[in-house]
Structures
1.
Amino acid sequence: MPQRTAGNYRSYAVEHLQRLGFIRRARELGFSIEDVRELLKLAAHTEGQCQEVDQLVAQHLGTIERKIEALTRLRRELRDTLSSCKGGRISECRVLQSLSPVPTDPKKRVRRASRR
């Protein structure tokens, strides 16, 4: 823990600054607090193998790639929706229509399961 100066400011040693920099960079890369703790724990064992680090980073990369794929689909859908709108009146707005639930056929009623 950094010591306090007479003016009640924290006085950081080089190792504190390095640790804070490590945490900041890991968070910038999207690692969770839990992952950062695990990375710090692994980093403290300098003679260990980096297989666990690689696994943690590979898992995080997979998560990021899935998010990118989902965002890419979302972007495509929003672009398509926006391009389908030709302006005009709100009652004819394709964007608003795409956000509304699909109307159900009144002839097809939902049956409730019978209770036994």
2.
Amino acid sequence: MTSGPAVPSVSDSAGARWRLRPMRASDLDRALQLEVELFGPAAWSYAMLAEELGASGRWYVVATERDEASIGPEPVVGYAGLWFDGDVTQVMTIGVARDRQHLGVGSLLLTALLDRSRELGAEAVLLEVAVNNPSAIAMYEKFGFQRLGLRKRYYQPEDVDAYTMRLPLQA
């Protein structure tokens, strides 16, 4: 895994604290739980997640939640990763626990990926998003991503189409 920058944190109005940190091997079990919760039959396996985490050019982070009234480890509520090929970065995945969606966690994760992409000198960021995921599409468009095309039956085994999207980083 490529080492990266310090990662930001943000509070929401309810006082919960979202923090980002580099993903560790010890996070893979939780990432797998989220994969299954969010992506069902198309979820990545433990082996796929582990391979991604250790692969060249990859950078993965997790979002944790700090609750001042609780003790113990901060639970992982989201994760995201990218791949840099030397020219552009590719968002490999972003996932946020269903009960933590629409609270800013996804935007925080995407911001970290974009910041890392800029640090790497990427010309642009590419991604695919399921056409039946309007919340994710809206978030990407809010950040300035534009639709490039459609990949038919991209997500398997559900046969769900994906939009390809691009965000230029350099003028």
3.
Amino acid sequence: MNAPSPAGPFALSAEALEWKEKIRPLARALMEHEVAAELGGGELPTNVAQRHRREAIALGLSRMDVPVEFCGLALPWLVQAAVWEELGQVTTACPGAFPNRSGGCFEPAQLTRSRPGFCR
């Protein structure tokens, strides 16, 4: 029987590793605010939360599994798992940092009703 590799039973794809590197600065920035968030009932100061939310949206985190035809990234599950692994290192300040919806819950009509012209 072969022993598992140092990376575990499988290796991450180049795309997954690229995303981990891309997300790492945001995760580290959120970590800097964990104590303040804990002391603030799980909330970040508004200006900090807004800055991190803008950054997360700019990175495409709210569109990770949205189909490409609706301006999403349609990232494979393994890549999304790698992103969440990186973000999962943050305890308090991360969950509300950006809007996220599972692609399984994605309804194209929601986008066309709520954001007409979104993909233009």
